Amino acid sequence: MSVRHYVLAATDGFIELPTSPDLPPVGTERRKVYVFGFVGGLFKVNNKVINEDLNWTNPSNWPKFKDLIGTATIPSPMVWGETGDRVYITLINLGMPTAGIMDAHTVHMHGAHVATQLDGFPESSFGVPMWMDFDKAPPVATYLFDTEHPGTYMYHCHVEASEHVQMGMYGALVVYPSMKSLELVGIRKLCNGSWVYKGKLQDHISETATNRNFAYNDIRSYFNKEYIMLLSDIDTRWHDSVQTGGNFNPIDFKPDFWLVNGRAFPDTLLPHPLTPIEGSNKDVSQLNYESYVHVKTGELFLLRMINMGYQVVPWHIHGWHFAVIGKDANPSPFLKISETLGLHAHEGLERGFTATIGSGETFDLLIEAEDKRPQYRNYIVNGQDCISSLCNQMHKIKNIDPNVIANIPTEPVNINNIDTVNYVDICDEPSTVNDNFFPQFYPMHNHDDYKATNNGVYPGGQLTYIQTDAPEQKCEKKNHGSCPENYCILGI
User: Fold this and answer.
1) Three-state SS for 159?
2) pLDDT: is 113 or 94 the higher one?
3) For the chain, how far is it from start to end, CA to CA, in angstroms?
4) Could you tell me which residue ranges the Plastocyanin-like domain spans (predicted)?
5) 11 vs 69: CA distance, rounded Å
6) DSSP structure string for 126-165
7) Does the pLDDT of residue 107 top 50, yes or no?
8) Dmax of the chain from CA atoms?
9) Ramachandran category for residue 102: left, alpha or beta (phi over 0 → left; psi -120 to 50 → alpha)
10) How many other C-beta atoms can be found within 10 angstroms of the C-beta atom of residue 204?
């Protein structure tokens, strides 16, 4: 059990949204939008200080807090803990000086089991007033969240929520199982790194896995990688009105930008500015807001879907069918049912290719990047049923109009040197390189397809990619005649 203490400061700022489907430097025209948000992050874990600059009790830090005014972005910092942790969030109100707004603010931990006084709903509890004099300590409130249940949550300001949530005051909140809670249901990690469930070895679980490779206290919730997909929508007229002191009526809400983790396509393909640098302290962030999903064939990956927008999102994933393993921080009842019935893998679970996510809902979608090489190879590379291979067909199309063959950015996308892959080029590579059809790129997007635009310009909005790479080459030592040799076998 740990005590995790976060410090969040409410302020305003600006984001820039793309107005064309082109990546920089081509897509340089941007729409500047005024927003509210929280800045800050993890202050300390137990008695270990992670970021001394967030110590609001130290007068030498008060000028640093003042410098944070006007730096808000969307989304707000990630908050996470493990089952049994006590998570504290201290809120400081820096105000919204750009618009001259002096509103109080709160933190509502959406879905948490907390007392009314900690709920952040000001009509039944309280708000935190603005810090007016930076020569004196700020007024603060510290919220407590006992992490009773693992799952995907969110947090947001609940003061005049119709406006403050639209303006961007929200972030992701995730609770993982602990090693202790896993052991209580029979999931244990042995000293040699192997994992067992009720005494049975689990070969599919990596020796490097931790309790944070499980979404719930259930063996079937194991994943190799995870991604937050925090969905929201923006009506720029509303934001402009708040900035200029107008009188926008919320019932006139009509969004013109749709966001994934605070960004619209094609920015969703770029590295996220809130992701900590590689090698930074693991306590700073277990998760990040990267929206470009990059996995290897054979991996299990978890999409933590969060809808903070005001519209229902039919989230559609190309190429894969997902298993719904949880909703609103509750494990799917089908997890236990399928185990009781003795079903394999994720048989018996609710499955689909489109998840309809209402405002304020979360879904945990688990996807296996299945090895589909046999199916892909026959048609894409070899051809079948007297039909020419897709590679040959694309070569003919390229000769007619090369512009219709996609150049798709690969991860990580570097603005100064954007790496792209062209499917015709892949077809020209020898089969020993990557089996001719890797990497694969699968879009996922809001299937209200007009919301995959930026103010009506397609493609844009709530759209991003899943990149799947070829299976890893694994080497085996075999006897070949009288001489032992090493053979690398793809995906074996």
Assistant:
1) coil
2) 94
3) 39
4) 78-177
5) 6
6) --BPP---TTSPPPEEEEEEE--S-EEEEEE--TTHHHHH
7) yes
8) 85
9) alpha
10) 13
Residue 398's Cβ-count burial label (10 Å; 0-12, 13-18, 19+) is middle
Q: How far apart are CA 373 and CA 396, in angstroms?
A: 24
CB atoms within 10 A of CB 476: 9
Neighbours of 91 (CB within 10 A): 25
Task: Please name which of 10, 157, 172 lies closest in space to residue 79, comparing C-alpha atoms.
Answer: 172
* DSSP code for 304: E
Contact (CB, 8 A) for 189 and 263: no
| Per-residue pLDDT reduced to its tens digit, 26-56 | 766 899 999 999 999 999 999 999 999 999 9
- Tokens 């990690």 correspond to 189
Task: Name residues whose C-beta falls within 8 Å of residue 399's C-beta, 6 or more positions apart in sequence.
Answer: none
- Asked if 322 and 300 count as a contact pair (C-beta separation under 8 A), the reply is no
pLDDT, tens only, 207-231: 999 999 999 999 999 999 999 999 9
Enumerate residues 6+ apart whose C-beta is below 8 A from 296: 369, 468, 469, 470, 471, 472
pLDDT band, residue 102 (cuts 50/70/90): very high
| Structure token digits, residue 432 | 């020993």
DSSP state of 472: P
pLDDT tens for residues 283-333?
666 689 999 999 999 999 999 999 999 999 999 999 999 999 999 999 999
CA atoms within 13 A on the CB side of 291: 28
| Tens-digit pLDDT profile for residues 418-430 | 788 888 888 887 7
Tokens at residue 393, please? 């067909």
Q: 189: which strand partners?
A: 195
Q: Is the pLDDT of residue 260 over 70?
A: yes
Q: Is 160 exposed, middle or buried (0-12, 13-18, 19+ CB in 10 A)?
A: middle
Tell me if residue 280 falls in helix, strand or coil: coil
3-state secondary structure (DSSP) of residue 248? coil
Backbone angles phi, psi at 204, to 5 degrees: -80, -10
Cα separation, 396 vs 339, whole angstroms: 50
Query: Would you list the domain boundaries of the chain?
Result: 373-476
Q: Which residue do the tokens 């009105």 mark?
A: 241
What is the rounded distance in angstroms from the CA atom of residue 233 to the CA atom of residue 461? 9
Exposed / middle / buried, residue 156 (Cβ in 10 Å: 0-12, 13-18, 19+): buried
Q: Of 146, 215, 223, 227, which is closest to residue 182 (Cα–Cα)?
A: 215
What are residue 350's phi and psi, to 5 degrees?
Answer: -65, 125
How far is residue 281's CA from residue 274's CA, in Å, rounded to a whole number?
A: 14
Q: Residues with Cβ < 8 Å from 333, sequence gap 6 or more?
A: none
Give φ, ψ of 206 to 5 degrees.
-65, 145
Q: How many residues does the chain have?
A: 492
How far apart CA 302 and CA 324 sit, in angstroms, is 10
Are the CB atoms for 464 and 293 separated by under 8 Å?
yes
